[in-house]
Design brief:
Elements (H helix, E strand, L loop, with lengths): L3 E2 L2 H15 L12 E5 L5 E6 L8 H9 L7 E4 L13 H7 L4 E4 L11 H8 L3 E5 L1 H10 L1 H9 L3 E9 L3 E3 L11 H12 L3 E5 H7 L16 E5 L10 H4 L5 E5 L7 H7 L4 E3 L9 H10 L4 E4 L3 H9 L5 E7 L9 E2 L15 E10 L2 E8 L8
Parallel strand pairs: 1-6, 4-5, 5-6, 7-13, 7-14, 9-10, 9-13, 10-11, 11-12
Antiparallel strand pairs: 2-3, 2-4, 8-15, 14-17, 16-17
Helix pairs in contact: 1-5, 3-4
Length: 381
């Protein structure tokens, strides 16, 4: 049996592993972000490391290699349970055992079904003491890799619907949409969130209205470019649009077989892939698109779209998480566009529900709401 890591020393080093792990943002996917620290019997740090996909070696191995002989009899602090499976590298649990580590203090269990506690079991069987974090640090560590855990369980990316809204829930005015709803601070925060994602999805209506780029402008390093996806059932996207003109192997068009003849060849000439996802009424099949993204090792998808696509994603059951940026403004009027359109739910009992709601302060008089969709059965709709 393990006991909980509640002492100040455990807390300090575990939080340091989380900070190390965060250095892998944009660099570790489709693997999890992991940080590790080796502390010898005197309490001194003798090795540390964090994982990047291109670097191949896992954080634990990097930390143990840095520690060398000092790893024997040491305590290994790690932000995620050491793996027990052979993938691109041998199991980290075996490396920990071989190094002679005496104790492993872990921030959270690896929810990958191929691991899920077996790393702990293997190390315990070898006589290593395993200590698990308290609830607060475990929750923080889980949040750090929630997209990886979701992808490992489902084979599909974690989908976050993001939008900027007025206090009365509007995203666009009926006549003039020049300017921004939220502040520069909020928009910079959005870039940080984009950096944490593998892909971003919008609709053709948004591209035509805004001529947007949808790039990651955080200026932080990333292993692979942010995949930009436009849902465009009829292939109406202009070849002169900014998103097409800037395409460099990072743009995909999700379309249907109803697209006009000859249009697909234009995208082929620009080496922009067009993937067909047919749904009723000539719409793009969003669940099928999400499934396909999983086959492309996309672990996280951000939706930044208009009212129509937002509703299609919510009603289609593909959204896992909401991120709503609220500005201290009111548009009012029945002609101002709400953040979610479509037919909506026809009864209060059928309303989509959210849970684990969190308020994030953004700037003066601005905040964001982060919450998770309660997955409902069709009988509840």
């Amino acid at each position: 049996m393990s006991f909980r890591a509640t002492t100040d020393a455990y807390q300090q080093f575990l939080r340091e592993t989380l900070e190390l792990a965060r250095r892998g943002r944009g660099l570790a996917s489709p693997n999890p972000m992991v940080g590790a620290i080796v502390v010898d019997s005197s309490g001194a740090k003798v090795g540390e490391g964090f994982h990047t996909y291109d670097g191949r070696k896992h954080a634990e191995l990097l930390a143990l290699e840095a520690a060398g002989d000092s790893a024997r009899g040491s305590t290994l602090y790690v932000s995620l349970e050491p793996c027990s499976v052979h993938s691109r590298t041998p199991p980290c649990a075996d490396a920990v055992i071989t190094a002679g580590v005496a104790r492993v203090v872990s921030a959270t269990r690896d929810e990958n079904p191929e691991v899920d506690g077996t790393g702990y079991d293997r190390m315990r069987d070898a006589g290593i003491e395993v200590v698990e974090a308290d609830a607060e640090i475990a929750a923080e560590a889980h949040r750090l890799n929630e997209a990886f855990f979701h992808y490992a369980r489902t084979g599909k990316p974690l989908v976050t619907l993001k939008t900027a809204v007025t206090l009365d829930g509007k995203i666009a005015a009926p006549d003039d949409n020049s300017g921004w709803i939220t502040s520069e601070v909020a928009r910079a925060h959005v870039q940080q969130v984009r950096h944490e994602h593998d892909a971003i999805l919008t609709g053709i209506g948004t591209v035509q209205a805004d001529d947007c780029l949808l790039t990651d402008r955080s200026e932080l390093p990333r292993r692979r470019p942010l995949m930009r996806i436009v849902a465009d059932s009829l292939l109406r996207l202009s070849m002169d649009s900014k998103i097409v003109q800037s395409a460099a192997g990072d743009l995909v068009i999700a379309s249907t077989s109803a697209a006009r003849e000859g249009r697909r060849e234009l995208f082929d000439e620009r080496q922009i892939p067009v993937e067909i996802f047919d749904a009723p009424a000539g719409r793009v099949d969003l669940p099928a698109l999400i499934e396909w993204l999983g086959t492309q090792q996309i672990t996280s998808l951000m939706i930044e779209a208009g009212s129509k696509l937002n509703w299609g994603a919510l009603e289609g059951g593909v959204v896992d998480k909401m991120l709503l940026y609220y500005a201290p403004k009111i548009l009012g009027g029945i002609d101002s566009l709400p953040m979610v359109g479509g037919v909506g739910r026809r009864s209060r009992a059928g309303a989509l529900r959210l849970e684990n709601l969190k308020i994030l302060p953004i700037a003066k008089d601005e905040f964001a709401v982060e919450a998770y969709i309660v997955k409902q059965t069709s009988a509840m709709a």
